[in-house]
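Model it.
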Amino acid sequence: MNLRLLVVEDNRDILANVADYLALKGYTVDCAQDGLTGLHLAASNPYDLIILDLMLPGIDGYTLCQRLRESERRETPVIMLTARDTLDDRLQGFRAGTDDYLTKPFALPELAARIEAVLRRSRGGGRRLLKVADLSYDLDTLEVMRGGQALRIGPTGLKLLAILMQKSPAIVPRETLESALWGDIPPDSDSLRSHIHGLRQLIDKPFPQPLLHTVHGIGYRLAEA
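Modeled.
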């Protein structure tokens, strides 16, 4: 499965070098150069791992990581990059929720090795499985099951489903879903509604209890009630 990484780094040279190197290693890489953009991307997309600089404009890496863990309820693995290497700095990073700490300057092969190690630890040697009620989504095999029945869902539906399940039972604003699917320019005002309708037909219609709920004027949520 193609793994998707987010790199949040305000130094353009470092950002370009890291992104190019990881792309050559076969990863799909998204980039941000400030904390607020990084937080928006991290909260809106199902990344496999985030590489996060400590000193960022907007909000710093500590705050971004902490908000990702607490407000957004995301457990995406995080590797913190920093030129600050005191014990207090490292402990603050771990308290904020980072999984590993790499000091600048660093060698790109070491970063790649740490990414592989963190991904192995985060998976615990097992599957990355999302579950809401009797609905499950295996992110490694792309298999979706509900009530023991396999569901066939297309790529756009799978992307929507991953975001809704990861945020469950919270409401996901329609703007967040549109940004995740199409960036800043959705095709038209009814495109998201159409994809939500298609997803609902697959995961809800054959079953007695609906899980996908419309919150009028705000967005959508995936939950038992």
